Structure formats: C-alpha cells, structure tokens
User: What shape does this take?
Amino acid sequence: MPQRRKLLALVSAVCIGAAFLLAHSLTQNGPANGEHRGPPWRSPVASTQTFHIGGATLQVDFAPGLLDLPASQIMQWVENAASSVATYYGRFPVPRDRILIQPTEDRHGVMQGTTWGDVGGFPAFTRIRVGQHTTTRELTDDWMMTHELTHTAFPSQEDEHHWIEEGLAVYVEPVARVQAGFLQPEKIWADMVRDMPKGDPQPGDQGLDNTHTWGRTYWGGAQFCLLADVAIREQTHNKKGLQDALRAIVAAGGTIDQNWPTEKAFAAGDAGTGTHVLEDQYKRMASTPVTIDLEALWKKLGIVRTETGIRFDSTAPEAAIREAITAAPATGRITPSP
Assistant: This one.
C-alpha cells in the first residue's frame, strides 16, 4: 500500500543522503546504475502534459522509460482519478498538483505511489510507478491513483496520526469513484464487507494513535471513517455526512501542504456538519481499542452477504444512509478540461 510523508525532516534527510550518494556514485555518464539519486521531485522528466479540473491545474510529468500504452491512455487514467477526487470534494483540493509517472521496465500494473505536500514549488506532489507492460484493464481497475490524490485533501499529520491519512484515503477512494461513475455501489460495499475486519484491534492494541500495524493504520482508519460517516448521517437525519466534514476541512485550508493537529482538523470537519462526531470519536478511539460490530452495521445499512458477494436490502433501517453515502453529490460530477 502506498505511504505518504510530509517534509521538513524528510527533505533534510533525503538531501543529505542524496549528496552523499552523488559524491560517491557519480560518473561522467550520471549516477550509478543509471538511477536518479536525490528527492523524487527532482527526478528527470522526458515529457509533460497539463490539464485543469475543479479550479486546479495538474501537471503530469513522464520520467524517461518505456510504456506499452500511449501517453493518452495514461493521461485518461490520471484524469479519471482527478475527476473522482474533485467530484467528492466539490473541487480539486489544492490549486496546483504535480504527478510524476515513472515507468518500470518489464513489469505490469501500478506498483507504488507516494504523495508529499509542499515540495518543489507545488502544494502536492505524487510519484507513482507504472509497469512497462501495464494494460488498459489494469489502469481501469486501479485504485492507487485515486487513493494518492485523496491524500491532497487532508492536512499533514505526525506519525502517530498516520492512520487518519491512510484510513481516510482507503475509505474515500472507492466512494469517490462510485460518485464519479467509475464503480458500482455493490462492488465497493462487497469489498468493505470483506476487508473492514482487517482493521479490528488485536491483543495488545492501544488505540489508533498508539498501534501502528498495517491493519490498524489502513483499515482501522477506514473503520473510523465509515463509523463517522454513518454517525453524522444519523445525527443530521441523513442531510450531511463525512463528505461534508471533509469538504469543510479543505475549505478551511486543511490540505496536504499544511501541518495541522488532528484536533484542529476534526474541529473544522465537525463545524461543517454541526455535530461533534469526529472529535468525540477521536477521543474514544485514539488511545483505547474499540471493536466495531461490523455485522450489526452491515445489517442496519441493508448489506446482506450472499454466496457470490452481497445484495442490498432496501427495507433495512438505514438503507437510505447507505444509498446517500455513494449518491452523486448535488455539486455534480466534475470533469477535466485541457
């Protein structure tokens, strides 16, 4: 799974390490093994394309290397992900974003993405590796680009709060893709039923802030977001949800290029819904393991397991909440322009 890291100490460490490596590895023909040494945002660029979406300009750079697919198909993949994120948030979260596509020789698929804030003159920068032999179907099925662009829409956190950055991206990514028309609701709810238990606390758990396993960071954070979405909708009679809270955080300036305490971000989100769900849930789950009764949650949302996946029960008590979570927002689908 991709990871994102904010800067300051990282930049210093990378630059110092890069200087050391360059001093020992450079030859007349460049770095050892032909690889770039130094921060990824300073990697060489072979070509550049730009598009606009939701009030933002996105610069897509292609690093040197071969891809079987034409650049136009890679661009369509990036634009679809940007459309999903802009549709969910009502605009693209940051005014300028840079995405570096790094081809990887003799590989298939999208293999790694990392997003940083406030580097190289851009509020957000994503480096993502794409296999040379990646197919159109692999790009269509990919979730990683949308996941990475979702990271632009939340302020950078200290390491102990990494779970909200990753959990939020895990939860928002599929919902955003449904809202933009790229996935069906049945698909993402079936995936949640299958995967959400990975976030359950295990023996020795000390809450989300103090337990940094893969499961708790990604899926424990996703559980937090799902639970908050449902609770906000319950308290507002389904008039608002987590989407409104996250839009409020972005509107208040809480994007990846900013360093905010978690409490400040959640306060801004709660102000956008008129509730205290995020703040109260954080107090309850930060330092104490909380096991969510997922089976009861699926039942009240009208998600029924079947031999082949799931089906929806429209008579369930909170079926309308389930439907509202993935419904197209009133602001409509936001698409790119040249």
